[in-house]
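Deliverable D5.2: sample structural annotation.
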Amino acid sequence: MAKKGKEIELQINVGPQTENDNIIATETTQQEPAEKEEMSTLEKIRNTVKEDTPKPTSQISLQKLLGGDLLNGDTVRRQIWLIVLVTFFVLIYIAARYQCQQDIIEIDKLEKELAEAKYKAMSSSSELTERCRESHLLMMLQANNDSLIRPSELPPYKINIPEE
């Protein structure tokens, strides 16, 4: 038995389809029982290509979005490193903003503590000034009769020293 020559032409157009674009499959053989299996395979390919080939569209639908078909696109695959880089920068931005907010909270807390310390220092200084006044010291001396220090009854006067 000599094998008969077989010629198969399969043309598939990818892109926007028009009425003139069809899948063309032609074969020229003499049918023999062994070649029927090959024809059934060819028929399977022909049916698969005709029925399941989706038309490529540039429109984004809800089904594509939820089904994940959008992520399988060539554009997304080509730009994956850009997407990763942008995601990385967004994460750094969020982390920096969070850290900034934490620093602002800490600064506010420290400013409140500083204001409390200033008020405490002012009140201590005021109390010390009050205790050091001459009138307050005189009252303390009069309260302690056992003290030998008495206020002077004579007004102060100047002592002139001649220069030589």
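Annotation notes: The beta strands are 7-11, 24-28. The radius of gyration is 50 Å.
The annotation will be released with the project's public dataset once the embargo ends.
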